[in-house]
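Supplementary Methods, section 5.1.

A reviewer requested that the exact input to the structure prediction be made available. We therefore reproduce it here, unchanged from the version used in the analyses.
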Amino acid sequence: MRFDDKLEIERAMVIFAHPDDAEFGSSGTTALWTRAGVEMTYVCATNGASGSSDPKMTRERLAVIRKAEQEAAAAVLGVERVVWLGFEDGYLEPSLDLRKAVAREIRRYKPDAIISTDPTIRWWGEGYINHPDHIAVGEVVLRSINPDASSGLMFPELWQTEGLEPFKPKALFLVNADPADVYIDITETMDTKVKALECHMCQIGDWPVGDFIRERNAQRGAERGLAYAEAYKLFRLED
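The structure derived from this sequence is encoded token-by-token as follows.
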């Protein structure tokens, strides 16, 4: 798929903290790209086990539920695979273990483009404080570009023992950057985005998530005269 005159994308990867993060942030783009033939890999850093205040719920049971919901959402979007890193939800830090785990998947699947979280976002408006797991994942992805996935002497066992040679993607898209410099028109995949979000029933319940996400993506679209859009900060990483 030709993104523009400078960027060709055959393989892409979305790296996120929790089941449903990718659906809220970038699933309209994912649906567009998979329709265009891009091989898409999801990498979920945590098990999603903290996302409930139900006194009858256990972490173990919730992790199973959320994994199944995420796999269903990925199928709606045409995602090729979902990789589960298995870190504990709510306890994520930009540790060496997480950095190595993310670098491993980047080297394994060699995405031309990565979509992930902007680690500089600490809040939105007056009503939402960003989750520390989101910030940690965004920070780790930046470190994966330089040096974790791209340097042969960083985590040398990945190359020497596991046979995963150094790799650097062509581009990095950070979700919901403000100001953004790239707006992707998701008008034709807005309904698919809603269907993917609706797979996450343990998180959504009776909340009309479709109304919420349409309004949110309409607001971003209005910034560029589009019906619905997802907005990104784009880094072009080719030497």
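The mean pLDDT is 97. These observations are discussed further in the main text.
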